[in-house]
Design brief:
heterodimer; A: mainly beta; seven-stranded mixed β-sheet; four-stranded antiparallel β-sheet; about 0% helix; about 50% strand; globular; B: mainly beta; five-stranded antiparallel β-sheet; 11 strands
């Protein structure tokens, strides 16, 4: 089945230690998103890629970076995690093609714990 | 500003009872609207979507929603709740740049 995969599902890192979360997709969608979701809150968009074009949200901290080496993969790098970065990180994809009704397909998420 | 309002952060129903989760949107043009469900420690799964083709939209797991322009509402319903329906539900609209605008979410609790 075509899907969005996130690895790892659970990640523990130390305060200030860089961490990378990964997302891959078999849907061949050209748009990929990263969201941060804190406990009991709605997801918050961090940034997205339209093909290789990177689009950062205005309020996304510089501590968060992303890479998209090819259509299938996208990475979220947190350069110096703080305790406030503990959250669920969700990857989503969308097709730009007409008729796909613009819905986003979400991965299962990576829960990040910062100790 | 475009927004989505979900009434009730928690809704509790008995198993077998009607589920009604409320959502109102603000928009000057017909919106794209979605309901997503999130089970604990999972990603979001699309339940259903409104794309102006029909005002009554049927989704997965027996859920449906009715788009009412006069009330700017898109409430989610299910005739009979199951224990497995316990989850967080998000009403979502898409803005003009295809970004998702989320409601604050409603946690559905199903009592045995």
């Amino acid at each position: 089945d075509a899907m969005v995969i996130q690895n790892p599902r659970y990640q523990v890192t130390q305060f200030g230690k860089p961490v990378t979360l990964s997302c891959s997709q078999t849907l061949n969608h050209n748009v990929m998103y990263w969201y941060q979701q804190k406990s009991s809150q709605a997801p918050k968009l961090l940034f997205h890629y339209y093909d290789k074009d990177f689009n950062n949200e205005a309020d996304t901290p510089d501590n968060f970076q992303s890479r998209r080496p090819n259509t299938s993969f996208c990475f979220l790098d947190i350069r110096s995690p703080g305790l406030g970065d503990a959250a669920m990180y969700l990857c989503a994809t969308r097709s730009h093609l007409q008729g796909f009704f613009y819905e986003q397909y979400f991965g299962p998420g990576t829960r990040l714990t910062v100790t | 500003a475009q927004s989505v309002t979900q009434l009730g952060s928690h809704v509790s129903v008995s198993e077998g009872a009607l589920v009604l989760l409320r959502c109102n949107y603000s928009s000057s043009v017909p919106p794209y609207l979605f309901w997503y469900v999130q089970y604990p420690n999972q990603g979001l799964q699309l339940l259903l979507k409104y794309t102006s083709a029909a005002t009554l939209v049927k989704g997965i797991n027996g859920f449906e929603a009715e788009f009412k322009k006069s009330e700017t509402s898109f409430h989610l319903t299910k005739p009979s709740a199951h224990m497995s329906d316990a989850a967080e539900y998000f009403c979502v609209r898409m803005d003009s740049s295809y970004k998702l605008i989320f409601g604050s979410g409603t946690r559905l609790l199903v009592r045995p």
